[in-house]
Amino acid sequence: MDLDPTREQKDFRTEVRNWLKGNIPKETLPSMDTQEGFELHRAWEKKLFENGWSVVTWPEKYGGRDLGILEWLIFEEEYYHSGAPGRVNTNGINLLAPALFDFGSDEQKNRFLQSMASGEEIWAQGWSEPDAGSDLASIKTKAKKDGEWFVINGQKTWCSRGAWADWIFCIVRTDPDSERHQGLSYLLVPADSEGLERRPVNRLDGEPAFAEIFFDDCHVHSSNLLGREGEGWSVAMSTASNERGLNLRAPGRFTAVAERLVNLHEATEPKPDPSLTEEVVNSWVRAHAYRWQAQRTATRILEGEPLNSEPSIMKVFWSELDVELHATALRILRDRSDLITEFLNPSDETEWLMGYLFALAGPIYAGTNEIQRNIIAERVLGLPRK
Amino acid sequence: MDLDPTREQKDFRTEVRNWLKGNIPKETLPSMDTQEGFELHRAWEKKLFENGWSVVTWPEKYGGRDLGILEWLIFEEEYYHSGAPGRVNTNGINLLAPALFDFGSDEQKNRFLQSMASGEEIWAQGWSEPDAGSDLASIKTKAKKDGEWFVINGQKTWCSRGAWADWIFCIVRTDPDSERHQGLSYLLVPADSEGLERRPVNRLDGEPAFAEIFFDDCHVHSSNLLGREGEGWSVAMSTASNERGLNLRAPGRFTAVAERLVNLHEATEPKPDPSLTEEVVNSWVRAHAYRWQAQRTATRILEGEPLNSEPSIMKVFWSELDVELHATALRILRDRSDLITEFLNPSDETEWLMGYLFALAGPIYAGTNEIQRNIIAERVLGLPRK
Amino acid sequence: MRFAPTEQQEQFASNIASILEKECSAEALQLAGEEPSGRIGGLWETLSETGLMGIAIPEEFGGLGMGSSDLVFILEELGRSACSEPVAEHAAVAAPLITRWAQNETAREILEESAAGSRKLTVGSPIDERVVSVESSDLILLSKENELHAVPTKEIEHTPMTSIDPRYKTSAIEWSPTPKTLISKEPEAIEDMTNRGVLSAAAQAVGVAQKLLEMTVSYVSERKQFGKPVGTNQAVKHHCSDMAIAIEFARPLVQVASWAIDNERSPTENFTVSGEVSAAKTLASEAVELACRSALQCHGAIGYTVEHDLQIWLKRGWILASTWGDALFHRRRLGKILGLTD
Amino acid sequence: MRFAPTEQQEQFASNIASILEKECSAEALQLAGEEPSGRIGGLWETLSETGLMGIAIPEEFGGLGMGSSDLVFILEELGRSACSEPVAEHAAVAAPLITRWAQNETAREILEESAAGSRKLTVGSPIDERVVSVESSDLILLSKENELHAVPTKEIEHTPMTSIDPRYKTSAIEWSPTPKTLISKEPEAIEDMTNRGVLSAAAQAVGVAQKLLEMTVSYVSERKQFGKPVGTNQAVKHHCSDMAIAIEFARPLVQVASWAIDNERSPTENFTVSGEVSAAKTLASEAVELACRSALQCHGAIGYTVEHDLQIWLKRGWILASTWGDALFHRRRLGKILGLTD
Hints:
- The complex is a heterotetramer, with 2 copies of chain A (386 residues) and 2 copies of chain C (342 residues).
- In chain A, 47% of the residues lie in helices and 14% in strands.
- Chain A has 386 residues and is α+β, with helices and mostly antiparallel strands.
- Chain A has 3 domains: 7-88, no CATH class; 123-230, Butyryl-CoA Dehydrogenase, subunit A, domain 2 (Beta Barrel); 245-380, Up-down Bundle (Butyryl-CoA Dehydrogenase, subunit A, domain 3), CATH 1.20.140.
- The two termini of chain A are 41 Å apart.
- Residues 339-346 of chain A have low confidence and may be disordered.
- By secondary structure, chain C is α+β, with helices and mostly antiparallel strands.
- Chain C has 11 helices and 9 strands.
- Chain C has helices at 7-23, 26-34, 43-49, 68-80, 87-101, 104-116, 187-222, 234-263, 273-299, 310-322, 327-337, and strands at 121-123, 130-132, 139-144, 147-152, 157-161, 170-174, 182-184, 224-225, 228-229.
- In chain C, strands 1-3-4-7 form a 4-stranded mixed β-sheet, with helices on one face. Chain C has a 3-stranded antiparallel β-sheet with strand order 2-6-5, with no helix packed on it. In chain C, strands 8-9 form a two-stranded antiparallel ribbon.
- In chain C, a hairpin with a 2-residue loop joins strand 3 (139-144) and strand 4 (147-152).
- The radius of gyration of chain C is 20 Å and the shape is globular.
- Chain C starts with 6 loop residues before the first helix and ends in a 5-residue tail after the last helix.
- Classes of the chains: A alpha+beta (386), C alpha+beta (342).
- At the A-D interface, helix 7, helix 8, helix 9 and helix 11 of A face helix 7, strand 9, helix 8, helix 9 and helix 11 of D.
């Protein structure tokens, strides 16, 4: 057991910290779910890319630094700690890119990865359908092969970033007679395709964080097929195991929030109720535990051990931790005033409230926590299914 | 809405309070799960009976006072508040008696009710079997009719008070070809019958709170059949709905514990951690809510309304409240010393610890809380079963 | 002892419920959310016609002469329909306060018009100093240093706050007490004001929780995933049961608190009116918070959008859980009442 | 950075686990519970033969010269087997304390016999003043007013306490410090004593929780009700998952804390050894409390009896959750370390 970083890792941390210190926007950017905010976030992605911070673990030829998972953990810690803007292209970088690396042709990788890393092309996710939420395999959107084209008809929903994204990655049914996990294919669809219409869907806070996408004889060229025809489920699962795993939620995100929570507690006068102090400690300890659990998982990944329980266990833990961190902050604020009315003022309170609403989605998306708990019980602990 | 007691009810409360004040044993009785304690508790039952306090809601001819449910609630409040001994014959009074009133012949009522009320005959429950716990309908113990006798063979378990009781009420399978809820019968069995053996089973704390009962050609006279042959399930259910309902756990039990908890908090110096103070408030409020929910339910019963959700909802609530009340006390004690080692000393700490262990059984017996929550969802809220 | 609504109480509440069902439907609320006023046109007037605005005003002033324990069943319905009008502030807090604490001549003038709903009252909470529905009100009950005042809306300055619920308008206000606005100098009057406000929030919170439960039960019974209704999963069943349990135990305490306010004493030995009220709000706040969380979890992503009606009750639920003191506030208040803290 | 046991660490822990599986079986523990001593005969000696008692004693004194982060994996196994001997007190607390804080001449004498297990050490917690396994020990490490003392057992008076777990013997003691018993006057020594004691309780607690989870999974997979295994119910599955989650997040913190003790600094920026230790105990106490509650609930009535083996781990779990400070104690300690309270 060796918990010390190497000299190189220490230096890397210092480099990241210093660069961020000198470069993050002075003013908080508008929400990335507004058109203005979306473009400002895109510009920030470009700046990150130009300085080599956009995708530190990717190969250099796609704009990365070829670094390992431990460095990635360091980068994320420093990134969140610095208060830098949210990443507008996480759908692409975290969800699509792993599948592109695994299943993409060289042409596809060259075509898509660098423009993704630079923010030139921002991606939206197009998996869910009105009747295919948790039950992803019941996808109905169809794509019929027509020469060099796939012709898509159907509807997608909950496409996050869908309102302004440049591209959408979709799972569609290419074999009309197939059922469940069979006969699906994975298509990369330009958002400005003819026959594609998008309708923004407003989140609780009124921002169009999602879109519905309607396909009406939408033609997509077969060069945009990722993996083989009918192999869509495997391609999606390589993304999904990633979505539910370590990459989507780096511990830096939570330790940074825990730190903000400690600061909020400190800044509150008179001192918050002691039960709130204990809640702060509790949340802080859990963020701390998540950090070290992630470090331990990183060692396993580096040593080539299979990850069994980690993805589901971590998903349940971080999503509930995230709610807890924000709920605790709201209780502190509520205890000193009536926070709930401050929803849209650009104050500290608002940030916590927005964070809370965002956190509430955590136990739902990427496989509800109920389903994750089933997975832990059945696949990890070996309890009988029926 | 009228929440005031009548003048008669006020007087009744005063009468109960005064009698208990003058008559409860000065010293705490030994546990009723020791032989000595069992007999001392029996003597206390006799004293209650002789003064008309044993079964206040029963008809006078069986030793009761013919009082209503509101007076019963008052009696129980005062009883628990006074710190009087636990009732050793609750199995008989709360579980068997309702079935006797509903299904018993006049001979049976005359034979059993008064001697139950006086503590002359103490009853144990004989329902569960090794493979029939939550799934009561899978009973295997058989009774074969042989002239005027039923001949019982099989095994019962978790017979509370089984170690020293005088009688046991059992559900047995009288139709050997029957399945599940069919073909069962309800038998009243003298504990000293030939062919009946009992083996005490020690609870966590080492006291024989249960017994296993083994039947080996045990002959029971057919006059001890309660209800008709094959009707055992209905008879049991009239008891079971009672077990899960209002009668088993009167609110007085919990409000009295909540009061003791407030006193424990008060007696603790230095003052307990503020988070513990809030836990005390929380437990107190829940006991208070249980009290008023019971009052509301009493009104419904008096007005002949059907009880739908109440039995299951109340069972979940009181059993979890009971754990919470005792766990809070343990946390207060632990905060000022290391309580856990004081297990067998007759101190205040021990009482709380014993109470905690006892409380832990609450969410398990009389239908686990998991099953109760299913019942609430399916039968009350109407969620689909499959 | 009879712990149940009278036939008259049930009848009145069910009357109001039918009106709300028609005039304060989810559709109407969605539309109101897009209006700057956040209001449903005509709703105040329709409700006024039932006599509701004067329900707790004595008959001599044109009211119905009823009390909190009559109102409590209606307050729950107001929550259940996420009613966008300040009926609770007017009828359950301000009017009874004036009735009890104002001098007769002041009272008569205000109450006669209030009973008909033509003068609209609202109230500023002594706990958090916000006022609901300032713009549409005529007279505001406010507290300052143990004094109860009734201040005409036109005499105060108010800054609208941006509420999470566009149908629930609150303002920060500035005002100065004058001898003319003074209603009472009794410290008890402020305690009474607090208790009535807390109770009305608690009762509405239970109603919101009930509605969230109903919506959830109906959604999970219909919505299918993996070939069967989501509601067949035990975890979903238990979410719903837990909501039902929390509601079932909060509700009687809310009713007991209303009786305590009417009778100016607690029906529980060694306990107080404020204690009953805080006990009720503690469990009501907890019930509605749990209901918000579980309803959203059981609905999944759809509940997370503005388009689905669930959000109307989520937002109202979050507000009612915290307004007039959250569970923590009332646990602390109870700690003092029970003598656990100073 | 490599956050995983070395091969040697894994090997040692799995050796100890095999011995415990054989010699400290549930059957043996049940029998020990009926003995007045509460002990399993020969177990101490068998374990001593592996060198375990001197694992953290320097090689020059006949020990193995390893540290807390080697021990932590073994401590978890000791909990998992509900080991009835004070191995943790001896090898993980007392011996390393003497190694670090005693003068060389005192240390040599004690440590050489301790390494072989022929002199048996135990320790009194500065938090709750009880001592474990007094009767079978030779020398007790105790604190008094920031002084660390090593007191021969024959020089103290002790009153046995009746533990809920008959295999876990504790005593209240009376003793007087003398210059001869003094080991160190450094306040840091007491902090070190506390941290080592807390860590050993935390690591064992995780082991107990792990065992409770294993027993529960196995029971609910076999036990049938309503024609199918109890473990097919989603509620039971979720009980088990929640236990697994709590354990999975407590375990790394326990390992991090052991590294911090060895290195006399925290691997986390702006944090302390005591902080790591208290963080570990907070989550370990919570994990084992949850495991006790859920294991009992999933077992149903059978878990509630002395005859079923579950009770062995329930009782040990309750003790380990509270000894050396419960979760509340350590949350408060963390509150101070994080600067949230004074």
